[in-house]
Amino acid sequence: FIITHTNHNLLTMRETMLFFHFIGLAFALGSGFASLFIGIYNKDLRPDERPKFMLKLRSLGYMGVTGLVILIISGGALATPYWSVIGNMPFFIAKLSFVGVMVVIVALMDRRWRRAVKNGGGSDLGAIPKLGRLAFPVGMLILLFAVLQFH
């Protein structure tokens, strides 16, 4: 695909990666917000309805993982010019640290999702919202440190 500016130049590699970074952000945070609000507004489901309902939300998990992968790939490309001066960028170091924490949380959630789908719910399904409540503020901190570093 070709996207042009008013001066008819193609997007630079940085602008292309920034575009994909924002797409990844929309996927990742969008799935987090959706899961949060769906959980809040459906907390009163009967115990026998909850597992069936929750298992239908797996698509939001896929969307979040996809967004995180896009963020990591595009973020790695965007960060290339900064690796040599990373010691002078404390907010960027904090952001990367929280990205590492987020990867661990998402991997744990994905593992729980896989087992819950295989077993039709169970304790794995009950752990997912708890991990989600941890992932959400970590995601907000990642965004905060990115804004503070690259304002």
Task: Describe this structure in a few short sentences.
The protein has five helices and no strands.
How is this structure best described in words?
- The protein is an all-alpha fold and 151 residues long.
- The chain is built from 5 helices and no strands.
- Helix 1 (13-41) packs antiparallel against helix 3, helix 1 (13-41) packs across helix 5 and helix 3 runs antiparallel to helix 4 (90-119).
- The longest helix has 30 residues, at 90-119.
- The chain is elongated.
Helix-strand layout with pairing:
Layout: H1 13-41, H2 50-55, H3 58-79, H4 90-119, H5 123-150
Helix pairs in contact: 1-3, 1-5, 3-4, 4-5
What key phrases describe this protein's structure?
151 residues
- Which spans of ≥5 residues are poorly predicted at pLDDT below 50? none
Shape: elongated
Ends distance: 29 Å
Order of helices and strands: HHHHH
Q: Give the helix proportion (percent range).
A: over 70%
Give the C-alpha Rg.
18 Å
- Number of helices, counting only DSSP H or I runs of 4 residues or more: 5
Outline the biggest β-sheet.
none
Proportion of strand residues: under 5%
Q: Could you report the average pLDDT, rounded to the nearest whole number?
A: 87
